[in-house]
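pasting for ref
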Amino acid sequence: MRAMRGGKEIRVAVAVEPHISAEISRMLEGRVDELIPVEEPERLLDLIRRHGPGVLIFRPAILRDNPEVIGRARRMGVGTIALLTEEEAGRINRVESDDFILIDPSKSPPCSPVELILRIRSLLKEEDSIRIGDLEIIPSRYEVRVKGRRVVLTLKEYELLKFLATHPERVFTREFLLSEIWGYDYFGGTRTVDVHIGRLRSKLDMERPIIKTVRGVGYMLTLEEDEGGSRR
């Protein structure tokens, strides 16, 4: 994946533990213009005013003594991404951020580099399309293409595909997808998700299907690999 480039420099502030900061630095090397470590969380707003980052990646534990700064950063136009462990995601009722990513601090890297980059792109709106292998999603036109071939989808099929594509390599239960795409007040059952996944697979008609079924759990969108084994 090439470095993200638009008409302006891309600056990302990082308020996380030192070992996670080092991992993020490696994941974003060559993909952003400036990575700004937040060494004094209590002075985060001053740092934002001085450096003007477009995105703030943070761990709630680092900013627990100054939780109000996230809301203020957002009001200053900074996109925010919270990094949460599965335990934190289940325990914390609400995190005031634009987006979040599940991480495993014991692993290297702690999260999918592709997912992190997609989330940054989404917040900055630096790129008009999402590309994963032969699949291209163009949000501004609600358009989907496979190897340049236009794929006609219903609104819910499109929303389901886009959600999975912006959260690659993560498994989602049918119940979660139903509430996320159709809403909590939808009275249909989880079979609705199965039907839409089946239609998506049929319409995309890809040589290497990227929407996988995880038996007994739900669905995930996987990243295709080149013949040499590298992710595209």
